[in-house]
Amino acid sequence: MKSPQKSARERILETAEDLFYREGIHAVGIDTIIEKSGVAKMSLYRNFASKDDLVAAYLEARGQRYWQWWDGVMARNASQPRRQLPDLFEAIAVRTRMPEFRGCAFLKAAAEFPEEGSRARVVALAHKKELKKRLQGADQPIAHVDRRGLFDCRHSGKARCCEGYGKGRRSPHRCCDCLIFSRWPQFSEAD
Questions:
Q1: Does residue 191 fall inside a structural domain?
Q2: What separation in angstroms does the CA of 37 have from each of 57, 109, 123?
Q3: What is the number of helices (H) and of strands (E) in the chain?
Q4: What 3-state DSSP class applies to 143?
Q5: Would you put residue 143 in left (φ > 0), alpha (ψ -120 to 50) or beta?
Q6: What is the Cα–Cα distance from 148 to 184, expressed in whole angstroms?
Q7: Are residues 64 and 122 located together in one domain of the fold?
Q8: 36 and 75: one domain?
Q9: Do 87 and 140 share a structural domain?
Q10: I need a labelling partner for 83 at 20 to 30 A (CA). Which of 14, 31, 77, 146 fits?
Q11: Is residue 29 located within the same domain as residue 116?
């Protein structure tokens, strides 16, 4: 059975996501997106009133997929918080080692759109706010997340315990241990 053809909107979003992520949002023009997606200019503007609308839709779709991925990783050991963070850090490490990884799309978008109130910046900062909420939790923070979206371990009060993560000097599990032990002191390194 032949799979259904993607809609113009889907093709535009797929093309925009690839180009925006690889080349940068400002570096990619509407004409390039039209050409690469194989849609007419009218189809693009029928689906997205402006490039700003397209950028916001791209970031929203990317964010939705990211949180689905995050929830899937956390659900693997839903009843074992001691395992959730190492699983998450390991999954993040795997993602960042992929050849197509080009950094955080949301931080890149926020850097490209420094103007307060820009739709891209609003969506990007909402994503970072959600990340902070998920890391800090409602009751007991796992970590302090600073304004750049980086965290300091509450166990040591500094990020030093996690310094070098991703560069072969620390494993995701060691980095998580100090976060976990600060939140759940009943766990020890011997557990």
A1: no
A2: 16, 21, 24
A3: 8, 2
A4: strand
A5: beta
A6: 26
A7: yes
A8: no
A9: yes
A10: 146
A11: no
d(CA 19, CA 135) in angstroms, rounded, equals: 30
Q: What is the pLDDT of residues 54-113, one digit of tens each?
A: 999 999 999 999 999 999 998 998 888 778 878 888 898 899 999 999 999 999 999 999
- At 15-43, the pLDDT tens digits run 999 999 999 999 999 999 999 999 999 99
pLDDT cut 70: percent of the chain above it? 69
- Ramachandran sector of residue 3 (left: φ over 0; alpha: ψ -120 to 50; beta: rest): beta
Domain of residue 40, CATH code: 1.10.10.60
Report DSSP state, residue 2.
Answer: P
Task: Find the helix packing angle between 51-75 and 81-97, rounded to 10°.
Answer: 130
Strand spans (E) along the chain: 143-145, 151-153
41, 53: one domain: no
Q: Are 84 and 137 in contact (CB under 8 A)?
A: no
Q: Which domain holds residue 33?
A: 1-48
Residues 43 and 58 in one domain: no
In a shared domain, residues 41 and 64:
no
